[in-house]
Amino acid sequence: MSTGRLDRRAFLRHTATAAAVGATTSLWLPGIRPHEAWARTRDLVVHPGGTTYERTIVPLKDQLYTRLRYGDGWHLMVRDELAAAKPNRENRRVTLASILHLTDVQVPDAQSPARTEWLSRYVDPFRAAWRPHEAVVNQVSDAAVSQSRAVGRGPVTGRTYDFAVSTGDNIDNMQANELRWFLELLDGGTLTPNSGGDGYEGVQEYWRHEDLADEFPPDGYDDFYWRPDEPPEGYWQDEFKADHGYPTLPGFLDAAVLPFEAKGLGVPWYSMYGNHDGLVQGNVPADPLFGAIATGQLPFPLPGLPEGAGPKLVGFPPGYSWSPAGAGQLLNDLLTGELDPSVLLQAPWRAVTADPDRRLIGPREYVQAHFDWSDGAPHGHGFTEQNLGDADVDTTLYYTFHPVEDVPLLGIALDTTNRRGGASGSIGRQQLAWLEQQLQAVHSRWHAPDGRQERSRAEDQLVLLFSHHNLATMDNDAASPDDPKRVLGDELEDVLLRYPNVVALINGHSHMNRIWAHGDAQRRSDGFWEIATSAQLDFPMQTRVIELVDNRDRTLSLVCSLIDQGGPADPVSAFGPPDGAYGHLELAAYGRELAYNDFRDHQGRESLYDHRVGSPMDRNVELVLPTPFPVRTSGPPERVERGAPAHAGRR
After folding, report:
1. Model's pTM, two decimal places?
2. Angle, nearest 10°, between helix axes 363-372 and 176-187?
3. DSSP string, 472-491
4. All domains of the chain, ordered by start, with CATH?
């Protein structure tokens, strides 16, 4: 009988859900109390609330399974490799744009038969085939979007976001249902992160397979995966719990597939294309049989497969050993066409509920979905009708956009995915020619490849480029007859250095916060900044605000500020011990904690914490560079909103 009262845990969960759905009055989501550390910093930040200037997420040391807590905020640092930072610029500068950057959301259908989780026990690139927290990535991403929306403006200038960008790997396995979930996350609305039958069906359930008994004696139980529930009779604890202290979270998987209300960005947003958007598991070109495995609609009968079910692969096909060498050979044979995909179905498999919405989508449907499945602005999210070809082969995924009215600023979205396969990137020669045309249209002067300076009557505009891969990971030279020589990172860098109005290249892919200064030894330009932001999929699960300002002293600044996702640092402290019921912010908090503890990938643990988070010079930074031309706006530019005087942190 109900008493009409809420216990503490139910009250916390109720308020968390209500605040996530409605407007928040606090800049922090439920379960979070602002830290006072930011008040003691000496920097240029006038609106630190809700950001990593106010507080950060840090590990509690000396634990087998590491819990997280709140730590002091980070200072704003200044990087002057490309230009000196002049004094008193904060009193002169005007704001040109405020941009929210998120990347590598990699919305996964964690139950899909097309996933290859068993490969994750081996070396790169297979570690990315499964993560212990992947069932709650939708909730993690919503917590990041909600917190970024609550902040709502640049911490240094106070300018509200002009637009947001998601720089590819928006989905994990090029599936239609994943793309629909991604669009719902960014637009807002009811999201049901479930596929197949009712409840969770995947590798984190307890199951045995008699064909695996030789590899996992005595009875084919693979204890590699973290299983949140208590083991049933006859099973034993998985290695995540037994050897690494992972918690028991009863009902975690059932809660992960329940509907929730996604907050949405609430601002215009632009979408880019990454290797996980266009390749199976981010590596392998789609094959019709891969699509049939994903949906359970096989072109031939499979003995033992029940009606209405599909086969979920759980091991290697014949001829491939359970070893890093066997995994590498399997990937090589898939990429080179040496393996008939039908041989995959000779591997061990489990029957799961079939789902036609798991179909694999090519570039054309990917673009079309941004028009048909999204009500958010702008229509198409950067893609235009010109991107839609008659087939996947002639669909383009690069475009330009003018994101801020009355500001001479051009955005250029690149497609760095190599459809021939492989996780790293490059661009084609046709796209390079198109890129140079767009750059020349907004430059009154630039340099030709032979070093000659060219001039035109074009009106100068600042240029921000967006791509999925960073230049360091653009090394994929896999060619095709119609594209025999791909453009790699070194060549693209050289091209961009010939155009002085290029301010920054903004990207992701490596799942780390990194910032590089690209100067030009040939002095064709003053160089540009490259800004990579960490993934939503992996720790630290941060977004980044980029504020573009004109300092009115012949320099520009790109002020970069990180925002943690809105789940509490320690879900047990915030919501109490797990009791089988979870709000979606609670799931997001556990998602970050599980990701930090992923010992296979060493995403954050111990001395490798900075590997993902980045050094102080990759986090909250002001990046200074010369102004390539006198920037004039057709209307009065928004001036920096300032609070009490402050001083910049220096490296």
Report:
1. 0.91
2. 30
3. GG------BTTB-S-B-HHH
4. 1-193+257-285+397-651 (3.60.21.10)
Q: What is the DSSP letter of 214?
A: T
Beta-carbon contacts of 61 under 8 Å, excluding residues fewer than 6 positions away, are: none
The type of residue at 476 is N
Q: Which two tokens stand for residue 443?
A: 């430059």
Torsion of CA 133, 138, 139, 145, to 10 degrees: 130
Strands (E), 265-304: 269-271
Comparing 122-126, 199-203, 274-278, 571-575, the range with the smallest average pLDDT is: 122-126
> CA angle, 506 as apex, 500 and 511 as ends, to 5°?
150
As given in the structure block, the two tokens for residue 356 are: 């036609």
Any residues with CB less than 8 A from the CB of 560 and at least 6 apart, and which?
515, 531, 544, 545, 546, 619, 620, 621, 622, 623
Task: Give the DSSP letter string of 349-378.
Answer: EEEEE--GGG-B--HHHHHHHHHHS--PSS
Distance between CA atoms of 454 and 475, rounded to whole angstroms? 30
- The closest alpha carbon to 399, from 411, 416, 391, 409, belongs to 411
Q: Does 320 have pLDDT greater than 80?
A: yes
176-224: pLDDT as tens digits? 999 999 999 999 999 999 999 999 999 999 999 999 999 999 999 999 9
The residues, any chain, with a CB within 8 Å of residue 457's CB and separated by 6 or more, are 444
Query: What is the SS3 string spanning 497-554?
Result: HCCCCEEEEEECCCCCCEEEEECCCCCCCCCEEEEECCCCCCCCCEEEEEEEEECCCC
Q: What was the pLDDT predicted at 587?
A: 98
Residue 72: strand pairing partners: 55
Q: Under 8 Å CB-to-CB from 277, ≥6 apart: which residues?
A: 168, 169, 170, 171, 174, 179, 366, 417
Residue 602 has pLDDT above 70, yes or no: no
Provide the residue count of the chain.
Answer: 651
Give backbone dihedrals phi and psi of 59, rounded to 5 degrees, phi first.
Answer: -85, 150
Report whether pLDDT(366) > 90.
yes
Q: Could you identify the residue written with the tokens 């009106």? A: 459
* Token pair for 512: 């780390």
Per-residue pLDDT of 440-478, as tens digits, reads: 999 999 999 999 999 999 999 999 999 999 999 999 999
Q: Kindly state the average pLDDT of the residues 64-88.
A: 95
Which strand (E) or helix (H) includes residue 591? Answer: helix 584-596
Q: Are strands 349-353 and 399-401 parallel, antiparallel or unpaired?
A: unpaired
Q: Would you say the C-alpha torsion 227, 113, 360, 189 has a positive or negative sign?
A: negative
User: Residue 70 corresponds to which tokens in the numbers above?
Assistant: 């709140």
Q: Looking at residue 480, what is its pLDDT?
A: 83
- Is the sign of the CA dihedral 500, 504, 508, 510 positive or negative? positive
CA–centroid distance for 290 within its chain: 24
pLDDT, the chain, mean? 89
The answer, yes or no, to whether residue 604 has pLDDT greater than 50, is no
> What is the Cα 68 distance to its own chain's centre?
21
Handedness of CA 327, 330, 333, 334 (dihedral sign): negative
